[in-house]
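Key result, reporting period 2: structure in, sequence out.
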């Protein structure tokens, strides 16, 4: 029997935390601990070393960016623990801060996504496996911000593909979203990588570089 992945949940709203626990358990994770503030989160991660931490962006005492700072500390001190941030509103700077320091095992979703249980579980599993999951609304805002430079070389379809790559979707996921073949997606990605003048590297690394370029957080 494979090892069950473990999660820690940090959310100050008791009702939402109860809901998150149930959804995370539905996804097949063991909830090792719960926390209502950033310090409690860091203590729980240090004690349990979970596979993933689900973290509210704004928590006591100031309700500003406590969750983001805790997430950055987790990725720095315990890099094996993935982090999925949840936010009430789109705050693209927080997603950029997290991605600037880490290119995998990170996610940033709006809390409303939790209501779509299937979508949330997919994102949670992807992040816990070392992938990336960005809320489509965050990606859309970043696309507006990155409306110049080499991205202008991309066709409309290529920009759609790159935006879905930034959300963390696989080639198969992109193909399903755009209703095209996986081979068509692969051709678009090859064209994107060429047009962005990325340095020679393995395919996975160049894909990450393309996403970071799109997000404007380095690479």
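The corresponding designed sequence is given below.
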């Amino acid at each position: 029997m494979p090892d069950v992945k473990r999660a820690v949940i940090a959310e100050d709203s008791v009702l939402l935390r109860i809901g998150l626990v149930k959804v995370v358990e539905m996804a097949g994770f063991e909830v090792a601990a719960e926390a209502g503030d950033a310090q409690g989160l860091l203590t729980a991660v240090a004690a349990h070393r979970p596979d993933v931490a689900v973290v509210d962006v704004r928590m006591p005492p100031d309700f500003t960016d406590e969750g983001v700072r805790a997430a950055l500390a987790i990725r720095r001190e315990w890099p094996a623990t993935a982090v999925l941030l949840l936010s009430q509103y789109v705050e693209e700077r927080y997603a950029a801060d997290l991605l600037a320091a880490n290119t995998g095992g990170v996610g940033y979703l709006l809390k409303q996504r939790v209501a779509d249980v299937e979508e949330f579980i997919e994102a949670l599993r992807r992040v816990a496996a070392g992938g990336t999951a960005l809320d489509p609304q965050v990606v859309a805002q970043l696309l507006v911000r990155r409306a110049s430079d080499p991205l202008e070389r991309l066709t409309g379809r290529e920009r759609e593909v790159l935006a879905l790559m930034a959300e963390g979707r696989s080639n198969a996921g992109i193909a399903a979203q755009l209703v095209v073949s996986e081979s068509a997606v692969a051709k678009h990605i090859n064209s994107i990588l060429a047009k962005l003048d990325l340095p020679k590297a393995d395919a996975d690394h160049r894909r990450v570089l393309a996403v970071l370029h799109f997000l404007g957080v380095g690479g």
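Residues 146-215 form a domain with the Arc Repressor Mutant, subunit A fold (CATH 1.10.10.10). The first strand starts at residue 6 and ends at 10. This case is discussed further under Risks and Mitigation.
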